[in-house]
Amino acid sequence: MRLDSIAPTVLALSLASGAAAASIPLRPGDYGAIGLACDNQPNATTMSFDGRSFSYAHASKCTDTVTRRSAGTLTIAETCRAAGDGSPAKADTATFGLRRQSATRFVLIKGESATSFRRCGPPGYFNRH
Q1: What are the pLDDT digits (tens) for 61-84?
Q2: Which of 101, 119, 125, 126 is nearest to 34 (CA)?
Q3: Burial 26-53 (b: 16+ CB within 10 A, else e)
Q4: Which residues is 47 bridged to in the sheet?
């Protein structure tokens, strides 16, 4: 088999896997609730986004999958498999909405509640202790 006949397939697979990784169009980093200074965020209002999935102070090793896109809102199914410190935990799946406002701002929608977030810094910004 010739190498030039394989290259288009490899390129297509690379693009497809890249598209899946970029399904949540936000800049990687640590995010905090708007209305609180980044340096004064309690754990409950912080999350980290690695470019694929979110993680939190009390939940990590999460996998986020966009299940629907409608009227500017993504519906995301998220399964977390560890506590915030990385120790194993029973897998838990939740669904939430995310309305992107920019590459560094979004509104998180859970049930009837909506909270606005903005990027406070690079991944690890909140790991100050």
Answers
A1: 999 999 999 999 999 999 999 888
A2: 119
A3: beebbbbbeeeebeebeeebbbbbeeeb
A4: 31
